[in-house]
């Protein structure tokens, strides 16, 4: 159940981060060229959710880090980073998010920022859960 919760949380965070990134791009485009509106194809909102889910799936394979040394953790995170980037790139091409190679190249730094942000938020969620568990254990010990 914990793995499903993590995948669901990451799906929501990735989708939200993609929407935030689109908003930033639209703002920049408005400031530079004066574009007043932004239109989407009918399938863009659902494609963002699908990509969010697909990008959260590789997390399933790196979740079990118990008994893993530091080097292997970094290797798994590197593989995860590449897998998520490939999924994002392929789905972006499939859903026509990019008009040119330049558009794809602009997405790369944004992807890196979003990736770091999501891992930071997941770490924060883990700390919050850890505190709740420790408080519950403390309360059980106090009652005994």
Protein traits:
about 140 residues; 5 helices; mainly alpha
How is this structure best described in words?
It is a single chain. The protein is mainly α and 144 residues long. 82% of the residues lie in helices and 0% in strands.
Please outline the helices and strands.
Elements: H1 2-33, H2 44-56, H3 58-62, H4 70-94, H5 101-143
Question: Would you kindly provide a brief summary of this structure?
Answer:
Helices cover 82% and strands 0% of the residues.
**Range of helix content:** over 70%
Q: What is the succession of H and E elements?
A: HHHHH
Question: What proportion of the residues form beta strands (DSSP E)?
Answer: under 5%
Distance between the termini: 29 Å
């Amino acid at each position: 159940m914990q793995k499903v919760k993590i995948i669901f949380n990451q799906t929501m965070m990735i989708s939200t981060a993609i929407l935030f990134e689109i908003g930033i791009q639209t703002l920049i485009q408005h400031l530079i060229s004066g574009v007043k509106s932004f239109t989407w194809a009918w399938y863009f909102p659902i494609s963002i959710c699908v990509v969010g889910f697909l990008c959260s799936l590789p997390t399933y394979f790196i979740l079990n880090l118990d008994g893993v040394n530091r080097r292997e953790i970094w290797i798994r995170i590197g593989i995860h980073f590449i897998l998520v980037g490939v999924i994002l790139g392929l789905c972006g091409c499939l859903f026509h998010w990019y008009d040119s190679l330049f558009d794809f190249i602009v997405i790369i730094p944004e992807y890196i920022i979003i990736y770091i942000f999501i891992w930071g938020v997941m770490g924060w969620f883990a700390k919050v859960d850890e505190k709740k568990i420790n408080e519950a254990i403390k309360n059980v010990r106090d009652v005994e």
